[in-house]
Design brief:
CATH architecture of the largest domain: Orthogonal Bundle
Distance between the termini: 94 Å
Shape: elongated
CATH superfamily of the largest domain: Neutral Protease Domain 2
Length: 478
Amino acid sequence: MRRKWIGLLLVLLLLGAWALPVAAQTGIRVVENQAALAFPNSVTFSALAQSGVPITQVALEYGVDQLTCGEVIARTFPEFTSAPSVEASWTWDMRQSGSLPPGARIWWRWQITDASGETYQTPTQSVIWLDDIHDWQTISGGNVNLHYYHGGEAFGNDLHTAAVEALTRLAREVGLQPEAPIDLYIYADTQDLRDAILYEPSWAGGLAFPEHSIVIIGIAPADLEWGKRTEAHEITHVLVGNLTFSCLGFIPTWLNEGLAMVGEGGLEDYQVALFERALAEDSFPSLRSLSGGFSEESDRANLSYAMSYSVVNFLAEEYGRQRLNNLLDLLTHGATLDVALETVYGFDVDGLENAWRESIGAPPRAGGAAPTLAATPTIVPTIVPVSGLPGAVTNPTPRPTSTSSGAVPATQVVEQAPTAAAPGVSGPPFGLSSETMTIIQIGIICMVMATIVVAVPIVATYSRRNRRKHSRKEKVQE
């Protein structure tokens, strides 16, 4: 009997020893998971994770919903002390990376691993990057979501109606259609707009972000008519940006802004006066010079807008809007401006300028035109995710603009280890652009070639000496 009890006790002990790890392995749980916005400076992701055994790794994956060449995932590893219950947090500092547009959708998820090797990934969550100090109201319809917090309901309805009408006009006159509803965020004035986004020009009155289908404008009730025109202008930038989105394409500024002026409804009186004076004095800038950014000087900037509108309108009226769409398509797929123009119209930039000048009664341009800016591919950011650069910037007077699709390459995961100097606080992780990688590769090739050039004579000399020594030894032996 004693042996039976001893045997039974041993069996129970063995079963208990086997069951203890199973009981301890209760699974990973994330009991807290949030993103706290400190608009417009930063967003802090935090999580509280628990397991029956120590947690050994915590990774945060995050990104922004936007138009890209492929899926972009950023990954970082917050610092924490391994234990069965851990708190982890990481701050995306927009002051380092550049700001997102108000209304952008940020997503994130956590990946937790414990000492048993189990890994758990939280469901993907998202938050709208927007301030909470304004009582935002929304009017939706006609592929436009208009968000505003001042001026009253009639003010908001007027702006929404004008935006929908602009979309209708652009579809009819230019053939541009929205791929998704466009979000317009209307701030009470330009100062409120500048407070909502970092590192933008002090003269900016409106910005377009085609990769997000977002427009932000500062419109005071007294500037309602200007606001309606600016809505149409920036909406055009979004539509053109969506239509021509590419990691290879280059759209010259005169074409982008000329289309936006068509969408706006044409020139204002002061721009017409500037245009007529330039025609009388034959003082237009060269069309090639308008492939890049416009001047920040008021009269020169507005003359550039007026000339861009006139050239684009000439192409549309003289050759039809379908050819204009064909031009955009070729540029989107990487054709240079001269090649695209030659293919669609039979002339290059200089030929276009002279044909346009003839149509307005101006003499051919004397002398050579300024060189064309190189048609460079869309910049691939080295900070992921990035969308701090606007698709267009607008101000009543002047209205210099800059364009960027914010495109990023196909799926990539950039990992960033935690830093001791500033644990838990950082901008998005850094990678290397394709241009930098090319330079590094060339440098490595040059180093290898230099090594070969130096090494070959040394090896040859060493071999000759060995052969001589071997020959002398053979003679001595003989």
